[in-house]
């Protein structure tokens, strides 16, 4: 078994884009720098979408231009189309990410096209990235459940994952977008996907809406997955479940990995401080149980 885990920190993008509180570029830059200083090797620093649709991601150019880049750290950007890709590359994004859904209804509601059409739309990005030797990561949303369709069949997730992998994505992140997955349903999804995509190319993006994220990650570890997405301080909510928590907190993930003896390269105390700092800016409490426990211990 491989004892090294890669953590993809999505707080500055997937976390902040779901926060109601606006945040300026200087604080986003400070957050990205603090996360790289804590040892995170992949930080999703922004999203090059139309700010009309995602206001919190306005100013992503300024973030990429202002961060203090560390050797060995990949600064990733979400790019929904070729224009977004070009904007991201112009400011030095290390890699880009594209996204599709395992739910037809979610795809139509989210990006106004079918799953197959969404993957076709990414062809120009894949061509440009291939020519420039820019790595592309693929996200699959709604792997366990959809707010419109309900339960999603693992075979459908595997079909979309394979399409993204065959298109050239170096890694496929399986997203439990509404957090309804349990260890059993996540196992079924991973098993189906691993039959068509090498398991070392799969990642799990767990949301904690129903408190299952760490249990789901642990099951994925047992199955051989070694890449996990998480968000410092549990930043972000779930827009499809009012008041629900969103991404699993990176601090909680790191604490569990420490207990399992798995290598990840992240300093938990520096990470927790980064979480405290951004929560102070947002005027909210951390959603990380570990961060809260560490803070109480220091009082």
UniProtKB/TrEMBL annotation:
Residues 5-272 form the Pyruvate carboxyltransferase domain. Pathway: Metabolic intermediate metabolism; (S)-3-hydroxy-3-methylglutaryl-CoA degradation; acetoacetate from (S)-3-hydroxy-3-methylglutaryl-CoA: step 1/1. Its EC number is 4.1.3.4. It catalyses: (3S)-3-hydroxy-3-methylglutaryl-CoA = acetoacetate + acetyl-CoA. Keywords: Lyase, Metal-binding. InterPro entries: Aldolase_TIM (IPR013785), HMG_CoA_lyase_AS (IPR000138), HMGL (IPR043594), PYR_CT (IPR000891). Gene3D superfamilies: Aldolase class I (3.20.20.70). One of its GO terms (molecular function) is hydroxymethylglutaryl-CoA lyase activity. One of its GO terms (biological process) is ketone body biosynthetic process. CDD domains: DRE_TIM_HMGL. PROSITE patterns: HMG_COA_LYASE, PYR_CT. It holds the Pfam family HMGL-like. The keyword Metal-binding applies. Belongs to the HMG-CoA lyase family. This is hydroxymethylglutaryl-CoA lyase.
């Amino acid at each position: 078994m491989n004892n090294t885990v890669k953590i993809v920190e999505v707080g500055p993008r997937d976390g902040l884009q779901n926060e109601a509180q606006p945040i300026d570029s200087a604080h986003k830059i400070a957050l990205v720098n603090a996360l790289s200083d804590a040892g995170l090797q992949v930080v999703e620093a922004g999203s090059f979408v139309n700010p009309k649709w995602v206001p919190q991601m306005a100013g992503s150019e300024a973030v990429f231009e202002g961060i203090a880049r560390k050797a060995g750290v990949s600064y990733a950007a979400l790019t929904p189309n070729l224009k977004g890709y070009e904007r991201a590359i112009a400011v030095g994004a290390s890699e880009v990410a594209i996204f599709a859904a395992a739910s037809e209804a979610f795809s139509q509601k989210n990006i106004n096209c079918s799953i197959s059409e969404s993957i076709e739309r990414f062809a120009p990005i894949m061509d440009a990235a291939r020519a420039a030797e820019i790595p592309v990561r693929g996200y699959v949303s709604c792997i366990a459940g959809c707010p419109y369709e309900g339960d999603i069949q693992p075979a459908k997730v595997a079909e979309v994952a394979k399409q993204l992998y065959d298109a050239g994505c170096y890694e496929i992140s399986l997203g439990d977008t509404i957090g309804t997955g349990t260890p059993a349903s996540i196992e079924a999804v991973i098993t189906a996907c691993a039959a068509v995509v090498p398991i070392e190319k799969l990642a799990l993006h767990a949301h904690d809406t129903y408190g299952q994220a760490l249990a789901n990650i642990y099951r994925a570890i047992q199955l051989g997955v070694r890449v996990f997405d998480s968000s410092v301080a549990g930043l972000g909510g779930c827009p499809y479940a009012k008041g629900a928590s969103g991404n699993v907190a990176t601090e909680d993930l790191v604490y569990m990995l420490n207990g399992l003896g798995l290598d990840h390269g992240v300093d938990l105390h520096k990470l927790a401080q980064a979480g405290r700092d951004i929560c102070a800016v947002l005027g909210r409490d951390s959603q990380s149980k570990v961060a809260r426990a560490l803070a109480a211990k220091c009082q």
